[in-house]
Design a protein that fits this description.
Number of strands: 0
Radius of gyration: 16 Å
Mean pLDDT: 85
Number of helices: 12
Helix content: 55-70%
Length: 181
């Protein structure tokens, strides 16, 4: 209904607004809200917004200060979409390789690390996402042979002296256990 009235049309340009970072950050919050609604993720996908958000995780933040500012909000937005679950979230997770994009960010500064953990927590809500967190791109045939070294960044964060990081990492581990049960 809102789409038919054109009320959501300004959302896509706001997400891409390089001149007004505050509007762009607010738009990311709205994206997560729209994604929760019936047909919301489909509408966003039709506008290319989830793919753009995922691609923005690959931007070198040293070369683009705006990307550095937006990265935690982008990760949190994607985490909120994944946490909602459903076929659309599973498709986004797989098509955009969100776990693989978030994994290296576990070594990023704290604000990015926390948002990357939130994304992994959201991903672990589905069987496919939990598999991606645990095994990465490993083939089912070799899944048993995947070294635990893959999980070392998460294991390190579970022993962090920063309580927020430790609790977030524990949340990811708990979600993995819940999904596997």
């Amino acid at each position: 209904m809102l789409d038919g009235l054109g009320l959501l049309e300004p959302l896509a340009p706001l997400c891409r607004d390089e001149d007004d970072p505050l509007s762009a950050l607010n738009a990311l919050e709205l994206v997560a809200i729209v994604a929760r609604g019936a047909g919301g993720l489909s509408w966003l996908d039709g506008k290319g917004i989830p793919a753009e958000l995922a691609a923005s995780l690959d931007v070198d933040v040293d070369a683009d200060p705006m990307a550095a500012l937006r990265r935690p909000a982008t990760l949190q937005c994607l985490a909120n979409i994944l946490d909602r679950g459903g076929l659309g979230a599973d498709a986004l997770l797989a098509s955009e390789r969100l776990v693989d994009r978030a994994w290296p960010l576990l070594a990023a500064p704290p604000e990015v690390r926390g948002a990357a953990l939130a994304l992994l927590h959201g991903a672990a809500a589905s069987v496919g996402g939990a598999r991606a967190v645990l095994l990465g791109d490993a083939d089912d045939a070799v899944a048993d042979a995947v070294p635990l070294a893959r999980l070392e960044p998460l294991r390190v964060l579970l022993r962090s002296t920063d309580t927020r990081v430790r609790v977030s990492a524990l949340g990811v581990a708990a979600r993995l256990c819940e999904t596997a049960a």
